[in-house]
Amino acid sequence: MLVAVLRLCARLPLAWLHRAGAALGWLAYWASPTYARRLKENLYASGICKDEPRCRALLREAIAETGKGVTELIAIWFGKDEKVARLVVECERWGIVEAARARGKGIIFLTPHLGCFEISALYGAQRLPLTVLYRPPKQSWLEPLMVAGRSRWQARVAPANLSGVRMLYKALSRGQAVGLLPDQAPGAGEGVWAEFFGRPAYTMTLARRLQQSSGAAVIMAFAERLPEGRGYRLHLEELPADDLDEAALNRAIEAQVRRCPAQYLWSYNRYKVPAGASPPPELY
Question: In angstroms, rounded to a whole number, what is the distance separating the alpha carbons of residues 75 and 8?
């Protein structure tokens, strides 16, 4: 019944879903003091906005954009293939992807929590085989919906565990593409502390290890959410693979966030100390 309702809602214009999402974003902000505090603290501490009026304006935008990121999943996960395929209305520099494919070493797509990271992967999966790492949600009933929504065209999903990581290595060994959320906090032993917007953040080492073992190209990708539900603009940028340590990775993410700061997921608990991990030296 739930899936049937969501498929029906997926027929609605994207603009309607985004308006509903903006309202949802404000509802969540006012209903959860913990959520609101984290969102505001992360945004203000980033240094992106240089004065109080701009910070307040950017905060209002971020609250609404975060909600849009939830309701747009209805269109992306439950919409018909032909409709989903039309959601990306512009793509910058797809030629760098084709050039990387021609080299035959595979591609590592890095999609931060910026804009609509769900549509970025599906756009790529229409054009090449793509294995995407995902972390199973805390609500177990949501996982089958997530997996089905992400497994379209040539996309495969790999759980964030040892078997999933092996799937990534195997895909790269075949010269295929993989996708990661590079700003997702890893588990203990799977990351190092590196500066992110001026604060220590436990940062995954997987992207570097995958690149070093395969020689794959590394391409940052994010889908900018366009106003009035007009769709998405996909931005692509190849990173220098020979300088891909965790500090450089975070700097690259920062550069993308500065292009579209209202659409970053500031509410994500990016600066937590994972269970079992040692805190950064500044916290001792």
Answer: 10
